[in-house]
Amino acid sequence: MSGARLAVLGVGAVGRSVIELAEEYGHTVTAVADSSSAVVDAGGVDTPAVLDRKRETGTVGESDPDAALAADYDVLVEATPTTLGDAEPGFSHVVSALDRDKHVVLANKGPVAERYSELRAAEAASEGRIRFEATVGGAIPICSTIEDFGATHITAARGVLNGTANFILSRMAAEGLDYEHVLAEAQDLGVAEADPTFDVEGIDAALKFVILSNVLADGNQEFTLADATVEGITDIPGTALELAAEDGRTIRLIGESTPEGVSVAPRLVPDDGPLSVTGTLNIVQLETTHAGRLNISGRGAGGPETATAVLSDVSRLAE
Amino acid sequence: MTDTQSEAQTHTIRLELVDEPGELLRALEPISAAGGNLLSIYHERGNLTPRGHIPVEVDVSCAPHRFETIVGSLRDAGVNVIQAGSERYDEELVVLLIGHLVDTDLSDTLRQIESCSDASLTDLSLSAPRGRDETSSARLRLKTRSGTNGDALSKLREIADEKGLHVIEPLTEASQ
Question: Could you tell me the residue range of the domain that residue A289 belongs to?
């Protein structure tokens, strides 16, 4: 199975890009669903037509959304919006695919951050496997790097995994502006959402570091968002960045995953160090047992970037 | 090969002195008399110890076996030695404090930090462009004893919490 049949749930920026790029990766989209509709075609759906229809009418087809879950596919792509707590409906989508012994690739952080051990239990009872590279750091291969090294050979992960907060902090430092000014600019540019809470309060970054902790703990311990210490960037005045700059430093929203737990907070870092990436870039540092420190950086968000991670996961499962 | 018996080591001694003329000289005499080499004296005028005395920090170089003699002769001379050891305040810690720094009595905040024996404030920059009722920021540079950065930070966090201030901590592990 090199070309996989995909059922794509969720037609936001990531889902749309997965649908657009699937053919280039040699895969066939046999089902697409958004929150209110679905289209299913065992021979492959007409992806340009489906995306046009979504743009024009807001729906992808005439069928009920559940039809996509029942369709013929090899890999389910779960790209519905991240929800916290019970992580529904994403969690049930994953379980339904695993019950049918199908593989699942997640771009939705909710189930992996909030119900990791249940997810792994459902996987253990299935012929299908789950992968979720796209949930952490967009296009950056973080989970697969940890997998290659082996979780026991990585002692900690830290870094910048929220492009919106990083954009705001680096603009504040560069322009000497206050938080509110830069947030408004970021919203105009589409870098920040109308409701930026998830990003600027550190929740999005925390979910990603919770996922990393789950991966690093390798089943020995489970982490959820409730276990994370989270601090955002909304209280940081421009003067704080100025004082940091005078001393050759800057402030970044840094997350850390260690065996002791998960934390996300604004931290002082050297201005010229690897962690002070600018703009929407992301970076993760992995501390390895025998190979020192590994820095991996790149684009941590965006439709095509995140879809790249999804499709790499699909290709690994299809091998 | 080093002769650990005679090799000179640097020691830091913290004293407190009554604010009276001649006190500093009186405290230093026993050090040189006992064979110690004075490297530096940090006389923290303007700061007071909890007993209302002036803290003084002295770096002395001497052979290890002479150190006890020096501390003993200081005590014999009636000088109050708060702390004596070979640890130097050789680690640096830079943090930002954010909040209503002026309204929450900045000098009291600094005094509390200083009274924590693990840290000594070496530099402060304050930025309060909008006057006293708006949020301001301060950058604090602290010298800490080797291996006590974590203790100094948790003490700092406590002090800040009480006053509703926000501490931005350095990412110590990644910054070396």
Answer: 144-299
A268 vs B96, B125, B138: nearest CB: B96
Contact A144, A284 (CB under 8 A): no
The pLDDT tens digits for A294-312 are 999 999 889 999 999 999 9
Q: Touching check for A246 and chain B: CB below 8 Å?
A: yes
Is-catalytic flag, A102? no
Tell me the sheet residues that pair with A205: none
pLDDT at residue B6 in the model:
57
pLDDT of residue B11 exceeding 60 = yes
Rounded to the nearest angstrom, the gap between the alpha carbon of residue B150 and the centroid of all alpha carbons in its chain is 16
Homologous superfamily (CATH) for B9-85:
ACT domain (3.30.70.260)
pLDDT digits (tens, 9 = 90+) for A249-263: 999 999 999 888 999
Residue A25 to residue A242: CA distance in whole angstroms: 47
CATH code, domain with A273: 3.30.360.10
Taking 60 as the threshold, does the pLDDT of residue A61 lie above it?
yes
Per the structure block, which two tokens stand in for A278? 């600018």
Per-residue pLDDT, B30: 84
Residue range B91-168 forms a domain whose CATH class is: alpha beta
Q: Can you tell me the ipTM of this complex? A: 0.83
Q: What is the DSSP letter of A82?
A: P
Phi, psi values for residue B92, rounded to 5° = -110, 145
- Shortest CA distance to A108 belongs to which of A130, A86, A134, A128? A134
Q: Domain total for chain A?
A: 2
Among the partner residues B125, B135, B169, nearest to A267 by beta-carbon distance: B169
Interchain CB contact of A259 with B (< 8 Å):
no
A179-203 pLDDT, tens digit per residue, is 999 999 999 998 998 899 999 999 9
